[in-house]
């Protein structure tokens, strides 16, 4: 097995649980090795036949030409003498992408996309130099491979500059899938209508670069974080004002933001080069309601459980992915995770599948790994 539960870090039952999940008999961990460092990743929201998965991963190559691969799963005999087939991840198609993707997301419509503008094809979006839309569909060969088509290239033409500022992140509205909001190093957040491929509105969101953002439930409210060390709340019905929910003590930059979609009172964020994750309650946001430690390296990613309001996963340079139970955080500090997983390299990213909530994916070095939790 490529990885195993973390030994010797005081996790107790958590390590034992993940150790059991990693046993070959359970077949609970599957690994795909890409031809490049994996940075961005996303689970498709479609429900596939026979519990099949579909994920997208993006490369991190320090040159213009990068790539996005769409991975699928299939059952094959690991060796000709094997008695039982095993699930394997494979690349069903590869999309050439300019520069590394800062983020990938699939349409929140999932299987409902057939009623949309893209004829039932599975739609995904990427950010980098621009916001790009792609669709993938079965290529008809019967080999389990996919064809892809670029559906849009959305450019916000700044008349004051001949250049387009790079996009750092984006979020796709789950209630209105025609709406995407992007963040940029030029301090702005831009709301797009992907059906018309036009800008709906743009706001100067921060004093410095905006690094990440996330929609709340509904279509009106989103929050963002950036290099000025603040978490800011915006309401599209009234963009004349924004609310500063939280600022780091010395205005250290905040890198990522995740909104708890099961209990929208809570946000998670973390600072650049920090081993801690802050959990904020927007009803009393000036001070984090709890701080998650547990990592011995800088936190790189965080994801709320899509099916539980009180579980969250963090991943870091210490090669660990930790799952935390926050159900008692209003009463006492959250000191230890309930599950710990040790990868074979620094974990760059993680995603918790909405369509398959028993599964978490992590990216480290050239590897994409899916773990049943």
Description:
The longest helix has 9 residues, at 13-21. 2% of the residues lie in helices and 47% in strands. The strands form seven sheets. The chain has a four-stranded antiparallel β-sheet with strand order 1-28-27-26, with no helix packed on it. A four-stranded antiparallel β-sheet has the order 2-3-4-5, with no helix packed on it. With 373 residues, the protein is an all-beta fold. The protein is globular and about 60 Å long.
In short:
The chain is an all-beta fold and 373 residues long. The chain has one helix and 28 strands.
List keywords for this structure.
single chain; 373 residues; mainly beta; 1 helix
Low-confidence stretches: 1-25, 113-118
Listing every helix as H and every strand as E from the N terminus to the C terminus, the arrangement reads HEEEEEEEEEEEEEEEEEEEEEEEEEEEE
DSSP strand content: over 45%
Specify Rg, calculated over alpha carbons.
20 Å
Average pLDDT over all residues: 88
Helix content: under 10%
Class derived from helix and strand content: mainly beta
Oligomer: single chain
End-to-end CA span: 16 Å
Q: How many strand elements?
A: 28
Q: What's the tally of helices?
A: 1
